[in-house]
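Translate sequence into structure tokens.
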Amino acid sequence: MGAMAKPDCIITCDGKNLTIKTESTLKTTQFSGTLGEKFEETTADDGALVQHQEWDGKESTITRKLKDGKLVVERVMNHVACTRIYEKAQ
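Result follows.
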């Protein structure tokens, strides 16, 4: 059932203040932070993480930035990187 959930991601930015709200029929989560600064986030499974995440001896870094009106999210873990780009809904 969880695999069938297709959440909506609502991203707002007021200057350097970023808020990301994820809504689905199963759960809604939201976190806010300031671009360029570390901040805490509560994940969908209620685990509290810092954006430079460390757990079980593993580290992950998530960088969020605005580029050409889009939110670019880069994650790096164990020398593997991925990028996700969010476009503003019309």
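Note: The chain is about 0% helix and 60% strand.
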